[in-house]
């Protein structure tokens, strides 16, 4: 058993060696041993390829404005592990992590010696979240972000009152399949009988899969561009403004501080979700709560401007769709600037197309290494680039310090790639910028 936070975290992270083991049997076994905490939780389940964390944040912020105590389970963490289990956006305490780890540890040992095998890191953290919100600190509602896929994801043991699928992209193809249809099938696995599903999927084959699944289990479907819509979108210096029409109302001039057209889609999913919670589950959510909640919503690492002078932005464009959204935003906001990019990624991503897109907008691109088991080698990334001004430097700290010192008025610095990379980069970047000023 654990007496310190460090011991608990070390044990949890040691489970990474087991990798990814899709399936729900170990989770079901643990829930049974814990007296089914998941059945005590009123929840919303949020899946998709990109935008899950942002959508969770928008919906949490709206519900908080309406006066509710909102739990969230998200991944990966950005600044500290405790973020993964939070109440009203505040990470749980170190001593609560120790308590939860001690609750799960004997179950993990028992599983090790069973035919099911030991639980993975994500299964342990998911079980901790279920235990926390089910038995330790219940909330009015809990928003669960899917870890990978949906159908066999550890979070899929919950029975939510609402499900959301943000979008579909070709990510984790080795596990989820190599077509939009196959990936949509995995994501659609979170759709439960009679439970409303809200989605922003665009591809025809993905829409067909989700529509058929919803019909099959009699789940009411609300699809962006069909059952609710966005209009009058415009970008501002501080974010985005748009109007949203739903079956219940029209909300004019909604403002968000997270930049990018794709963020209006994430926000619209949260708005549609909030209205469904209001009309069908008696949540007291007014238009004012939606307006203020969206304006206040903040999620680190999503086109986050750390400095205006010089212009320094971090963005977690960790897959092909994320890079496409980033490049679109860069072309819109910085079309008259020289764009210098620092990039690091995980090796299991579609790196060739990601780098090809970044090459298109980069005046200069530098590839770096970072300390993570699945991180791509900087030299390999460098070889994939066709940019005439490409560089490689294994030491990302040295690269950041040098790039900031050389940054001219007509240039911007974009640090992007894996969220695991950005979580290490952000505090160092802020400190470097502070010293530079």
Structure report:
With 437 residues, this protein is of the alpha/beta class. Helix content is 42%, strand content 19%. It contains 15 helices and 17 strands. It has helices at residues 5-14, 25-33, 52-65, 94-112, 121-136, 173-176, 180-187, 204-216, 261-281, 287-296, 320-333, 351-361, 378-384, 396-406, 419-436; strands at residues 43-47, 70-73, 85-87, 90-91, 141-145, 162-165, 197-199, 221-223, 229-236, 239-245, 250-256, 304-308, 311-315, 338-344, 364-367, 390-392, 411-417. It starts with a helix and ends with a helix. The model has no long low-confidence stretch (mean pLDDT 94).
Compute the average pLDDT. 94
Q: How widely separated are the two ends? A: 47 Å
The total count of helices amounts to: 15
CATH architectural category of the largest domain: 3-Layer(aba) Sandwich
Total beta strand runs = 17
**Rg to the nearest angstrom?**
21 Å
Name the helicity range.
Answer: 40-55%
Give the arrangement of secondary structure elements.
Elements: H1 5-14, H2 25-33, E1 43-47, H3 52-65, E2 70-73, E3 85-87, E4 90-91, H4 94-112, H5 121-136, E5 141-145, E6 162-165, H6 173-176, H7 180-187, E7 197-199, H8 204-216, E8 221-223, E9 229-236, E10 239-245, E11 250-256, H9 261-281, H10 287-296, E12 304-308, E13 311-315, H11 320-333, E14 338-344, H12 351-361, E15 364-367, H13 378-384, E16 390-392, H14 396-406, E17 411-417, H15 419-436
Parallel strand pairs: 1-5, 1-6, 2-5, 6-7, 7-8, 13-17, 14-15, 14-17, 15-16
Antiparallel strand pairs: 2-3, 3-4, 9-10, 10-11, 12-13
């Amino acid at each position: 058993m654990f007496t310190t936070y460090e011991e608990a975290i070390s044990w949890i992270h040691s489970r990474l060696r087991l990798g990814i083991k899709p399936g729900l049997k170990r989770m079901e076994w643990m829930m049974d041993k814990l007296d089914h905490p998941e059945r005590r939780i009123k929840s919303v389940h949020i899946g998709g390829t990109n935008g899950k964390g942002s959508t969770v944040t928008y919906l949490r912020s709206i519900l908080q404005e309406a006066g509710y105590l909102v739990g969230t389970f998200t991944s990966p963490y950005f600044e500290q592990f405790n973020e993964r289990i939070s109440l009203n956006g505040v990470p749980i305490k170190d001593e609560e992590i120790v308590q939860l780890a001690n609750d799960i540890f004997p179950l993990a040992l028992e599983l090790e010696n069973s035919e099911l095998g030991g639980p993975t890191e994500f299964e342990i953290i998911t079980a901790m979240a279920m235990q926390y919100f089910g038995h330790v600190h219940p909330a009015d509602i809990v928003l669960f972000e899917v870890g990978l896929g949906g159908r066999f994801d550890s979070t899929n043991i919950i029975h939510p009152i609402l499900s959301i699928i943000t979008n579909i992209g070709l990510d984790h193809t080795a596990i989820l399949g190599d077509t939009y249809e196959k990936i949509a099938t995995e994501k659609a696995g979170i759709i439960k009988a009679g439970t409303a599903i809200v989605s922003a999927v665009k591809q025809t084959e993905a829409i067909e899969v989700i529509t058929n699944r919803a019909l099959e289990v009699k789940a009411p479907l609300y699809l962006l561009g069909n059952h609710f819509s966005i209009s009058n979108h415009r970008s501002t210096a501080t974010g985005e403004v748009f109007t949203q029409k739903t079956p219940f109302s029209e909300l004019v001039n909604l403002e968000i501080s997270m930049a990018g057209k794709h963020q209006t889609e994430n926000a619209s999913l949260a708005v549609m979700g909030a209205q469904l919670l209001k009309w069908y589950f008696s949540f007291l959510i007014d238009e004012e709560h939606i307006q203020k909640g969206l304006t206040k919503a903040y999620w680190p690492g999503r086109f986050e401007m750390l400095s205006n002078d010089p212009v320094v932005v971090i963005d977690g464009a960790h897959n092909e769709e994320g890079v496409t959204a980033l490049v679109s935003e860069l072309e819109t906001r910085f079309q008259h600037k020289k764009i210098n990019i620092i990039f690091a990624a995980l090796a299991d991503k579609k790196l060739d197309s990601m780098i090809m897109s970044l090459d298109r907008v980069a005046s200069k691109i530098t590839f770096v290494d970072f300390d993570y088991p699945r991180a791509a080698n900087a030299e390999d990334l460098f070889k994939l680039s066709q940019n005439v001004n490409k560089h490689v430097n294994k030491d990302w700290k040295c690269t950041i310090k040098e790039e900031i010192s050389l940054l001219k008025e007509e240039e911007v610095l974009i640090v992007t790639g894996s969220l695991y990379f950005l979580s290490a980069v952000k505090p160092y970047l802020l400190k470097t910028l502070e010293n530079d000023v």
